[in-house]
Amino acid sequence: MVDAKDPRPASRLRLSEAEARLLAERAGVTWPADFLRELTATPGSNGDEKPPAEHGAAREGEVAASADSPLASLLDRGVLQHDGAKVVVHPSVQMNLELLFNSLAYVLVRGQRGEYAVRALYAVNEPLGASLFLLEDWGLELSLFDARGLVQELSRCVPPGAPQGDEGSRPDRSSPLTGRV
Strand, helix or coil at 170? Predict the structure, then answer.
């Protein structure tokens, strides 16, 4: 029995921009027009600038995303798999991408406070939700979560050090939060 008050933790997959593009192509899903370019653009830019060289770099204990070979990286991590002579997307990742790009409603979050920028795309289609989140190191994170956990997923967009609603706390106005939802 599933506890309605305690949704299961989200499943997360780190990707480089090149891996995300290849994965979508192999899964047969279409990114919204210019979505990846806008998502990975340098904060405050017009979207034409490239992210830093460490874009999508792996953290300790993770398999590194290779800008030279996104196919090899995705195969090494089991995100893509050999099926006879074909290379196919792992079924759970396929479902995640289909949910993210075939839902009826989306939430696109773009915001910035000082040096901290957040960009994320969320979609919910009961009983699951999916998101694509730009990480601080310019990598991307594809997530699949229980739709009841949407609030927790959205709370990841709150900049570090922001007040958490303590009584009497006020937002830091020295570096205003800008953006749109």
Answer: coil
**DSSP E strands, the chain:** 11-15, 80-83, 86-89, 106-113, 116-125, 128-134, 140-146, 177-180
The distance in angstroms from the start CA to the end CA of the chain is 35
CB 113 within 8 A of CB 157: no
DSSP 8-state code for residue 148: G
Q: What confidence tens digit (pLDDT) does each residue in 143-161 have?
A: 999 988 888 888 888 766 6
Of 142, 105, 154, 153, the residue nearest 125 (C-alpha) = 105
Provide φ and ψ at 113, rounded to 5°: -135, 110
At residue 125, the 3 state secondary structure works out as strand
SS3 40: helix
What pLDDT digit, counting tens, does each position of 119-140 carry? 888 999 888 999 998 887 778 8
What are the backbone dihedrals phi and psi of residue 53, each rounded to the nearest 5 degrees, phi first? Answer: -60, -30
Cis peptide before 127 (omega within 30 of 0): yes
Q: pTM of the prediction?
A: 0.69
Q: Which are the contacts of 82, defined by CB distance < 8 A and separation ≥ 6?
A: 75, 88
Q: Is there a contact between 140 and 121 (Cβ–Cβ < 8 Å)? A: no
Q: What is the model's pLDDT at position 62?
A: 39
